[in-house]
Amino acid sequence: MYPETQSGGTSLLENLTQLVADDFFSVLELTWIKDSGTRKATRDIAESARVTLTYGAQMALLSQKLDLNSVDNSQRSKAVQEVKICLDEASELGAERLSLLSGFDPGESQRKSARELFADSLREICAYGEQREIGVTLETFDREVEKRCLIGPSREAVALARTIRKEYPSFGIMYDMAHGPLLNENPRTALRLLKDYLVHIHLGNCVKTQGHPAYGDRHPRFGVEGGEHDVEDLTRFLKILFDIGYLGKRAERSRKLPIVGFEIKPLPGEKSEAVLAGTKRVWRQAWAQLQRRS
Question: 3-293 belongs to which homologous superfamily?
Answer without folding.
Answer: Divalent-metal-dependent TIM barrel enzymes (3.20.20.150)
